[in-house]
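One thing: could you explain this record?
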Amino acid sequence: MSSEEKGGPVTLQFVQDEDRCVISSPDGVLINVLKSSHDLLIAVADALPKDASSISDLIGATPSPLINSVKGMVLEGVPDPFPDWVKRPSDASISIFGADELEFGLYLIQHRAGSAVTTLEVGDTDLGSEKELVTAQIDAEHISLVDGGLPSGELATGIVINGESYPIDDLQFYNESLKSYLVVISKALGTHVLCASEEQVFLTENCSFIGCFALMDVLLVAHGDTERARRLLDVAAEQARLVRDYVDLARAAELLNCPKFIAEALARRASMALRDDDRNRHLNLPFIPHLAELYCSQIEDGKKQAYDLLTTLLADKPDARSLREGADVAKRLLGDLELSSRLNDLALSLSYDEFERDSFETPDD
């Protein structure tokens, strides 16, 4: 069936054609996972600070081994029970990476979706006999893929007729869409999407902060490449949004022996996020002690800013833990015992209020 053909089925359909079973669906899925080579990892790190759109050409020119392929038909919206078929759920979910232990590095995930058809060679087996639809869930390995890149429901991966299994090994698409993901696996930070794209055109502005941060870690651990890690700091900083992000980058800059002005610039951006980003204020407030510590430890004449930050905790009262952390910074780095005492007292008061509230809300036995 041609991939340019219009239309298609509105639900999952089975048709027996001589010795074949043809399954068609409006929601087919094909996910290919490729492991990028050392050369491509270095080339991607070089391209990101300049123009990520060149990554598509790099991928095309660099062979990358296929480490896993997931194929099937999405069962969301299909009637349950499905007429004349019995579902046979798999005991385990399908891993998109296909292995429990993976090397850290860069991976490419290609996700095709759309109306599709598959043909299974079933010989002279009678489809009117007892038959089962093999189903499974996809395990996305805790990756936060954007725009619904992976189906959340069941996936039909094959059929069983009279005890004989016929897995879906090939899909032909029409009206398909293609999404591509560069994924970084870091020993320290885990698995994260570096960049996502329609088709396979990557843009630097679409890179994620945590993905860049994970790529920096891979460069350092795998290759000791501090120079490329430094260059990725700017890319990560452009994608940072939270106080925590900027503080983490400043710590990384210190480990990479970057000039002091980089930590100062990151501290200013963190202060702006704290002041201007009302939507994420509840996420930013708990990191005030960490930002105050950054001002004290890495920025010349930064103790005044640190003091001002810690005093905001007295008014905003984010939580007892943040107040205790702020009290520690005030005592250890500012030497301000009075401010430390006030923060500790407020933390104790909040903890007591929370204890009283929990006691009041707990029903009697």
About this structure: The chain is about 40% helix and 25% strand. The longest helix spans residues 337-361. The CA atoms of residues 95 and 109 lie 12 Å apart. The first strand starts at residue 13 and ends at 17.
